[in-house]
């Protein structure tokens, strides 16, 4: 089993990518890790001479501000594109990058390729739920496909269901549709049509509409929405969380001695907050609907996140979920 | 000047509506307040015999779970519909309700009526901004029109600009488009087209795209988006805020003595948080694009909020903003 790693993507590449990869490789001698990037740079950060780490040299890379589709089409020798090509050709089984998200979506779609009957892949993250019996839920599409059709949302619901079954071991996962009301006839034209498709699909367990204010309340295992709304909602969560932390900090700073003392005492409780709602820090995102696992972590990822995401990539490969998705969407 | 008030709409109607109206009437002897509702019920809560309060009796009312358009069409004698009819006929100048939001939007659109060249009205709220030089911004559409066309977003930007000029005294208010990236070509088809219309419109001061994570950062005076996204984003803010308050409370409760003591000391600082992001509590919403001020406060509104929103209604009437909007959208 081989995992192709874009060693040059991310704010701390190649250093943190390489070190995180070595962490993962030490614990998984049966898995091969292939680092794509500037060989001398990559080699600098390898301390052991592990037989399950390989380097594929290239000078080219995709920058954070490159136009995604153009970069993937033109920079054939970029580390991310070479890695994706090797996945396509069966020389590797999965792709991991901390680089340009749009470019990774394009590389997944244009190079690795989608399942024949999946019209558009989706970006999916596992987000935390804070009440009820669920501690997590899958949320998609986070922005791979901003002009969704109803059938895209249906396909994403089926893909998410397979993921929740195989990776999170939920027998009959529930699917909710993000909407602006809970009743059946709520929402815009897209979501009214998506509702009907989801309701009539026998292979999923459809719960109904879920309002945005209940997103974090653990009502269902999977929440589907179009990529524009998903991205806007996710970034609203991040922005609201960071604003609130600032507001609390300001209120404490401008308070009296009593409040300042209190602030000092609850500092740790408050600082955990931001991270729990920052999807990048809770495990990155997976591009779902393509023929192999394509995983993404935040540009700011350090070695621990890289190692964690590579473990997750391994688990996805071992679970057989890609085969199950392929069967569901075979012709 | 006469303000028509739906005395029967809201969780605490008619009691809190009537008492709040009396508060407002005491301070504004030159303005007439007309309460629509069950006369004996309404009279019960009037303590003074003010000459500027009038009651129009009706037995019918719109319930919170009524289908909005059907209720407005069929319940001709409902307090909200009677009040709207009197605005349409020039017997009153503005409409206020704490009742069913969808029904109020329908009453505004179908009874009060829109400006000839405004295709769809929008729900707009003033939200708090937490950094930069701005303390507030206008956010629309919050859900009056969930299937928006690019031209609707343009019209809403022009309406919002008039509001910011006349009500908030901003000379040349900036308009941002909520989008999933800041570059010109970002977003779905709707927002790419809306961007071009906004950029080319001489009567507004277009800033460009604003990402959802920057919503609360005070980058612009007005943020426009379609009603589906606006509603989803607003409810995400509310849900995230309430989740975070719960998470902080839990972290403090489950912490050691030190953390518990700290929690006690910062309690006030934290409890202010929720309210500052709950748009209903910071002034309700206005239905913009119709021929008269139509204002809405939350169903849970108490007398202070009713009084506050009636003051706001008066200021809108006195500002001349409705005339300016009418001119901008005259044929």
From TrEMBL, chains A, B:
One GO CC term on file: cytoplasm
Cell compartment(s), UniProt: Cytoplasm
Gene3D superfamilies for this protein: Isopropylmalate Dehydrogenase
GO molecular function: phosphate:acyl-[acyl carrier protein] acyltransferase activity
A single BP term in Gene Ontology: fatty acid biosynthetic process
The protein's annotated pathway: Lipid metabolism; phospholipid metabolism
Keyword vocabulary terms for this entry: Acyltransferase, Cytoplasm, Lipid biosynthesis, Lipid metabolism, Phospholipid biosynthesis, Phospholipid metabolism, Transferase
Region forming the signal peptide: none
A matching Pfam family: FA_synthesis
Main subcellular localisation: cytoplasm
Enzyme Commission (EC) number: 2.3.1.274
Catalytic activity field: a fatty acyl-[ACP] + phosphate = an acyl phosphate + holo-[ACP]
The protein's role, per its UniProt record: Catalyzes the reversible formation of acyl-phosphate (acyl-PO(4)) from acyl-[acyl-carrier-protein] (acyl-ACP). This enzyme utilizes acyl-ACP as fatty acyl donor, but not acyl-CoA.
UniProt record similarity statement: Belongs to the PlsX family.
Description of how the protein assembles with itself and partners: Homodimer. Probably interacts with PlsY.
This protein's name: Phosphate acyltransferase
Organism listed in the record: Atopococcus tabaci
């Amino acid at each position: 089993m081989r995992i192709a790693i874009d060693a040059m993507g991310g704010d701390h590449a190649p250093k943190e990518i390489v070190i995180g990869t070595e962490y993962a490789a030490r614990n998984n001698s049966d898995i091969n890790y292939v680092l794509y990037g500037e060989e001398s740079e990559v080699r600098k950060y390898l301390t052991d001479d592990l037989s399950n780490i390989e380097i594929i040299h290239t000078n080219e890379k995709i920058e954070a501000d490159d136009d995604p589709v153009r970069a993937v089409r033109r920079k054939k020798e970029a580390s991310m594109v070479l890695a994706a090509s090797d996945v396509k050709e069966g020389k590797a089984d999965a792709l991991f990058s901390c680089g340009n998200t749009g470019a990774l979506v394009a590389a997944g779609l244009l190079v690795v390729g989608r399942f024949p009957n999946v019209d558009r892949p989706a970006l999916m993250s596992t987000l935390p739920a804070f009440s009820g019996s669920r501690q997590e839920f899958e949320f998609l599409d986070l922005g791979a496909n901003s002009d969704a059709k109803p059938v895209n949302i249906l396909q994403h619901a089926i893909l998410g269901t397979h993921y929740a079954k195989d990776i999170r071991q939920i027998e009959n996962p529930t699917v909710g549709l993000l909407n602006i009301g809970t009743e059946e006839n709520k929402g815009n034209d897209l979501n009214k049509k998506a509702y009907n498709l989801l309701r009539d699909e026998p292979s999923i367990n459809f719960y109904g509409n879920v309002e945005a204010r209940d997103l974090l309340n653990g009502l269902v295992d999977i929440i589907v929405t179009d990529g524009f709304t998903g991205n806007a909602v996710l970034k609203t969560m991040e922005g609201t969380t960071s604003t609130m932390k600032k507001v609390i900090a300001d209120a404490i700073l401008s308070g009296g001695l009593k409040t300042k003392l209190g602030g000092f005492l609850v500092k740790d409780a408050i600082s955990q907050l931001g991270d729990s709602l920052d999807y990048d820090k809770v495990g990155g995102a997976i591009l779902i609907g393509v023929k192999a696992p394509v995983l993404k972590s935040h540009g700011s990822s350090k070695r621990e996140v890289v190692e964690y995401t590579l473990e997750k990539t391994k688990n996805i490969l071992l679970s057989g979920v890609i085969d199950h998705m392929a069967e569901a969407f075979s012709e």
